[in-house]
Amino acid sequence: MYKIKFYPTHKGDYPVKDFIQQMDKKSRSKIWRYIALLEERGPNLLRPYADYVRDKIRELRV
C-alpha cells in the first residue's frame, strides 16, 4: 500500500484538495476512487487510470 500526500503551500493551504472539493459530487467521487486505486497500486497503476507524461512523470487520468 502506498501513501498519497497532499502538500500545503507556504500559507498552509492545500490547493489540490481545495480543487477536488470544488468539483460536483459525481466528479469528486470518481477522483477519490482513482486516488484510492493509486494508493493501492502505486506506480503499477496503468491505463485507463494513469499514464506516462514523459520520462518518470506520470498523471492520474480522471
Q: Which terms would index this structure?
A:
alpha+beta, two-stranded antiparallel sheet, globular
- Main structural class: alpha+beta
Order of strands across the widest beta sheet? Answer: 1-2
How many DSSP helices?
2
User: Unreliable runs, pLDDT <50, ≥5 residues?
Assistant: none
User: What's the main sheet like?
Assistant: 2 strands, antiparallel
Instruction: Report mean pLDDT, rounded to a whole number.
Output: 96
Strand tally is 2
Describe the 3D structure:
The protein has 62 residues and is of the alpha+beta class. The chain has one domain. Helices cover 39% and strands 15% of the residues. The chain has two helices and two strands; from the N terminus they run ααββ. It has helices at residues 15-21, 25-41; strands spanning 50-54, 57-60. A two-stranded antiparallel ribbon has the order 1-2. A hairpin with a 2-residue loop joins β1 (50-54) and β2.
